[in-house]
Amino acid sequence: MLIAMTMGVLQVDIVVPVRNEERDLAPSVRRLVAYLRADFPFTARITIADNGSTDGTWAIADRLAREFEEVRAVRMEEPGRGRALRAIWSQSDAEVLAYMDVDLSTDLNALLPLVAPLLSGHSDVAIGTRLARGSRVIRGPKRELISRCYNMLLHACMGARFSDAQCGFKAIRAEQARALLPLTQDTGWFFDTELLVLAERAGLRIHEIPVDWIDDLDSRVDIVATALADLRGMARLGSGLARGSIKVPRLRGSSPAGARPAPELPLQVVSFAVVGIASTIAYILLYLLLRGVMSAQAANVLSLLVTAVANTAVNRRLTFGISGRRHAARHQVKGLIAFGIGLALTSGALAVLHSPSRALEVSVLVAANLVATVIRFVLFRTWVFGKSRADKGELIERDHLRGEAFDPHPTGARAEPGPAPATRA
What we know:
Layout (H helix, E strand, L loop, with lengths): L1 E3 L7 E7 L6 H15 L4 E8 L5 H11 L3 E6 L4 H11 L4 E5 L10 H9 L5 E5 L6 E3 L2 H18 L10 E5 H7 L10 H11 L4 E5 L1 E3 L8 H21 L21 H27 L4 H24 L8 H24 L6 H27 L4 H17 L16 E3 L1
Parallel strand pairs: 2-3, 2-5, 3-4, 6-9, 7-10
Antiparallel strand pairs: 1-11, 5-8, 6-8
Helix pairs in contact: 1-2, 4-13, 5-8, 5-12, 9-10, 9-12, 10-11, 11-12
């Protein structure tokens, strides 16, 4: 076990989790130390968290801790990034707890905007995002597709509002971490997502930083295994929140004035289903009424259009808890685009029928409309009633400017050097 002797107040503890990273560890830590000494105005420590390495990683980490006063090394026999972060963050004496991947895929110039809003008290959690306006990302199409699909699932199934759960560049205020870490269970890669979802449920303010990101081509992450583990984590966390077995405390003030909290996913599903059944009944009745005076395709288009406008308005109010006129027109436009998918499905179903009976015609329409309803629910949660990319960009840029404006040393004084070297107990 290694402990650090801290001089003065430690403001930021940057954890670098590693497992079998003997090639990247030394150059990355040396680069990080150089950045902290030249460009970082806060007292900081680098904690190398070796979790279960079987190569020469631990020997390199130990040597770096002896070489640099800003560095300490902690070794854990069991692997797991989530396990390592929870253990070290739980015992850290810093005001802000951060972590970054050892490959330093994120440009280090984003570190100061990441932690400054937390140290000023403006925000509680900060994350780097590769999916917001202003981000510059270089990575393969496979990882890009998986990342976007994963975040879309989080928005649809967990009601998440943050844009990028998987970027290995995050920070949290220590007092908030102490309240949320006992609620986390994951020991692997899902730990990030779990902590962010809990932070949102606790009412914490999440600050997002658009980052420059270059993917590590030598990454040892098993994408398929990680994706499956993330899906299991989502199912466990979602089930616990829905059943009430995971009780999240309210850590920051109430919802903004005039805003209604969005209902939980199970309630949204029930509400959407009830509205959907009523819409389907109205759609069929209207279709049968119009069918006597126009063609099947024309009756289908008009019936869907009328019921889609009503469906969007009712779901906006009842299912997703949005009232008032703000963005109502935009929601309707997006709802009509979602309606276009339903139109394509139902029109396509009608097109493949050849001289059907009226009963078969209606049955096929009902089946196609049910499929369209499921797709529309996902679109409503992730896109129609979610924050637009422009809104997120504006919020991120506004927070980014606030972070840049924060002056940690008004008198121009530099922070004292980092903590003393790690010593073996």
